[in-house]
Each structure stands twice: as structure tokens, then as C-alpha cells.
């Protein structure tokens, strides 16, 4: 190291090339008049910041650096080179975070601490919905364990999937339905209704309808908390009644009535629970939510399924 400062452990307060130490100190002393008072308030020793007992406890040593170290430690810059000409370089080193212990309620750090605490509170409050959503109520956890123990005792326990899902990757909660069963219901319905048969004749549902579900909540439309609240029903079986078929030139869906789990009614956050069956090219599945309005406007048809057909589904996250 040069004549200006010394390095100890992980800390380096200034770097001075050969013959540049005096130039560094002169440049530092010219600037130190503006920062002396502030640095002195933060230092244990009036001569050289970093030379006090605190720093010895922190295993850091700074020798012979004068006010050059004070400036660089404050995040400033020193101008040195071999020829004595000024060449600025930044020293990314903050004195008080490396050497001094922060006092939360008194001294020169009270305002800094207050500012940090305020920022932390604002961060927590702005993300309160997410933080609440990832918490599991104790009572819910206990009931889940008891339910699993009862299932194990009966011999009908199914181990949960080992597939790992990151919370950030979960987009919606739904009741997944066996797609083969949905295809069978459509075929039966079409055979008994010529209008339905004609509608589905050229729709190629075998390729288009490969998964079937009733959306319970969507992160984008209902929020993270709404989706997470269905976690208590995860992998539980739910009966779903299909009560009608609604279709237009661009959409088709089954109207759905959701059943209960252990006597607790399962409700969808969507105003109209349904199973989307088909959409025309370029039409997103979410547009099926508009089918009841299209029926009311005379732009879609509704055919009741009498009696309703019940399909067993399972609550899942995707």
C-alpha cells in the first residue's frame, strides 16, 4: 500500500500508488474542510477516523491516513497519480456501516434509523396482501393434519404430489374435471339435441378440449389472497353439477353449480361458474365469462341440461 492508508482484513480505505501519498493527502485536506465536522461527529478519535477502540473491536486498522480516509470512507473520491496530476477514482466504501455501530434512538444516527424504519414499514404495508396470503391459519393446519390421520386410519390416504410449485408461479385455483367425462356428456347431449349436434359437428373438440376445469379464482382478476384461500381445499374432491350449455358463434361453455367439502360450500370468485368447452380462433378462454350477457342480448343460446349431470372434480392450483 502507499503512504496514505493501510489495509487490514476486509477493509481498504484508500489506495495510493508509489509517490502519490502526499498528493492524496493534499487533495483530501483541501476537501476535508467541508466534511470535517460531519466526520468528526461519527468518529471516536479526532485525528483519524477508524483509529478508535470501536474499530479495534471490529478488527480494522487505518494508519496515517489523515483526512484522506475520511473523504474516501464517506464515499467520496481521491485524486492521485505518480506524476502528481489529479486523476479521480471512486472509493466504494462507507465509513459508518463498516466501522461504527448504529444507535437506533440517539446520537447522529437517530434520523437515519427513523428513515430506515419508515421505509421498512412502508415496504411491509405495501406488500401486506402478499404476506397475509402466504400464511396458513393454525386451525386450518390442525384440521388438515387430523383429516390426513383419519384417512390413513381408513387406508384410503393418497400421498400428495411431490411436484414443487413456487408461489409466484401459481396463477389460478380451480376444480379440475376429468376431460373424458366432459367429452362423454357433450356427446350424449348432442345425440339428444340436433341443434347442439350441429353446433359441435365442425368444432374438433378432440384436439381443442384437452383439459376441463371450473376456475375458482385468478391471481390477475381476484388477487393473490383470493387464490391462496383455496389452499385449505387443495386436492379435495368437489361435486360439480352441469346445468346448461351456453354457446355463440365464438364461444361454448357448460354452466356449473359447485358442491361442498365437509359441509362447506365451495364458491367461485367468478360471477358465473362455468366450464369453457370451445373458443373460436383468437378468442381467449376468459371471454366465456360473457356468455350470460350474450344470451340476454340475444347473441348466444342457452340450453338446459335436465336433469343436471354431476361430475366429481378436484381442487388444484395452476
UniProtKB/TrEMBL annotation:
Disordered: annotated span: 1-29
GO biological process: tRNA splicing, via endonucleolytic cleavage and ligation
Chain ranges of the tRNA ligase phosphodiesterase domain: 158-315
Secretion signal span: none
GO MF, one example: RNA ligase (ATP) activity
InterPro entries on file: tRNA_lig_PDEase (IPR015965), tRNA_ligase_1 (IPR038837)
Coiled coil regions in record: none
Annotated Pfam families: tRNA_lig_CPD
Name listed for the protein in its UniProt record: tRNA ligase phosphodiesterase domain-containing protein
Organism listed in the record: Carnegiea gigantea
Amino acid at each position: 500500500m502507499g503512504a496514505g492508508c493501510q489495509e487490514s482484513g476486509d477493509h481498504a480505505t484508500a489506495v495510493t500508488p508509489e509517490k502519490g501519498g502526499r498528493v492524496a493527502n493534499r487533495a483530501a485536506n483541501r476537501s476535508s474542510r467541508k466534511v470535517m465536522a460531519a466526520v468528526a461527529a461519527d468518529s471516536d478519535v479526532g485525528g483519524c477516523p477508524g483509529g478508535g477502540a470501536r474499530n479495534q473491536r471490529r478488527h480494522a486498522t487505518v494508519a496515517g491516513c489523515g483526512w484522506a480516509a475520511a473523504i474516501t470512507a464517506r464515499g467520496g473520491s481521491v485524486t492521485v497519480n505518480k506524476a502528481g496530476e489529479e486523476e479521480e477514482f471512486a472509493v466504494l466504501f462507507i465509513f459508518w456501516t463498516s466501522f461504527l455501530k448504529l444507535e437506533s434512538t440517539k446520537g447522529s444516527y437517530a434520523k437515519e434509523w427513523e428513515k430506515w424504519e419508515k421505509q421498512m414499514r412502508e415496504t411491509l404495508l405495501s406488500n401486506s396482501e402478499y404476506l397475509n396470503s402466504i400464511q396458513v391459519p393454525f386451525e386450518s393446519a390442525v384440521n388438515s393434519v387430523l383429516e390426513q390421520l383419519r384417512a390413513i386410519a381408513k387406508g384410503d390416504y393418497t400421498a400428495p404430489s411431490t411436484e414443487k410449485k413456487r408461489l409466484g408461479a401459481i396463477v389460478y385455483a380451480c376444480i379440475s374435471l376429468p376431460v373424458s367425462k366432459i367429452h362423454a356428456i357433450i356427446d350424449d347431449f348432442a345425440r339428444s339435441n340436433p341443434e347442439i349436434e350441429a353446433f359441435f359437428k365442425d368444432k374438433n373438440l378432440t384436439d381443442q378440449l384437452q383439459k376441463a376445469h371450473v376456475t375458482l379464482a385468478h391471481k390477475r382478476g381476484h388477487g393473490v389472497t383470493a387464490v391462496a384461500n383455496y389452499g385449505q381445499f387443495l386436492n379435495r374432491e368437489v361435486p360439480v353439477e352441469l346445468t346448461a350449455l351456453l354457446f355463440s358463434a365464438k364461444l361454448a361453455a357448460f354452466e356449473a353449480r359447485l358442491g361442498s367439502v365437509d359441509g362447506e360450500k365451495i364458491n367461485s370468485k367468478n360471477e358465473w361458474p362455468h366450464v369453457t368447452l370451445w373458443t373460436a380462433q383468437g378468442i381467449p378462454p376468459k371471454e366465456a365469462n360473457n356468455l350470460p350477457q350474450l344470451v340476454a342480448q340475444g347473441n348466444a343460446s342457452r340450453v338446459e341440461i335436465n336433469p343436471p349431470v354431476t361430475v366429481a372434480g378436484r381442487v388444484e392450483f395452476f
